[in-house]
Specification:
Helices cover 30% and strands 38% of the residues. With 197 residues, the protein is α+β, with helices and mostly antiparallel strands. The protein has two domains: 1-81 and 183-197, no CATH class; 91-181, no CATH class.
């Protein structure tokens, strides 16, 4: 009789814990969504936003324009000021902490780079980079692009021998996850009601 009672007591405790844990996680997510809603409501409807799941928890990050925010310790925190040009959608790898920052420079010597950054302790840390540079053919006026594939560590850049070596390092960083384009939504009340609930 005593053994049965103890088993029932332990089982009740386990069930109670299972019921409480998801509620706490959901509460954190709802707090984040409410904070994002308050922030977006005060911004221009000409801007755009998106929710992404960058790290492994259930609380989404907010992309607003070309800025990136997260929710930590009960408040919104800006992670990054610039992700990509407004006309160029950003990409990331879901639940890996890895997002790609894209820069481009025009003019007579166009250049660009895709920087693969990992979210760590609330900050983005550069890990890998594809650096592009274009040279114009004086006869045809057309540009020819050349790319360097780099590893970034402790503020130093090391160039891989080839693209295959870069892809191997990328796979180690993100596993089998594929790139996901960040789909932006107009910052209107209708869109906020649709995606922030």
């Amino acid at each position: 009789m005593k053994k049965t009672f103890r088993r029932m007591l332990v089982l009740s405790f386990i069930i109670a814990c299972m019921a409480v844990m998801p509620a706490g996680a959901a509460s954190q997510k709802q707090q984040a969504l409410q904070a994002y809603e308050t922030f977006l409501s005060s911004q221009s409807s000409y801007m755009s936003f998106s929710l992404i799941y960058l790290d492994k928890n259930s609380v989404p990050e907010l992309v607003f324009g070309h800025e990136l925010y997260t929710f930590k310790n009960g408040q919104m925190v800006k992670i990054q000021n610039y992700l990509s040009p407004m006309y160029m959608p950003s990409v990331y790898f879901k639940k890996t902490g890895v997002i790609v920052i894209w820069y481009a420079h025009g003019g007579f010597a166009p250049s660009s780079f895709d920087r693969y950054c990992k979210l760590k302790s609330g900050k983005l840390e550069g890990k890998l980079e594809i650096e592009g540079a274009a040279e114009m053919n004086s006869k045809t006026g057309k540009y020819k692009w050349a790319y360097a594939y780099n590893s970034l560590k402790n503020g130093k850049t090391k160039t891989f021998k080839n693209k295959s070596a870069f892809n191997k390092a990328l796979k180690k960083l993100v596993g089998n996850k594929k790139k996901t384009k960040i789909k932006m939504h107009d910052n209107t009340e209708a869109m906020r009601n649709k995606f922030l609930k």
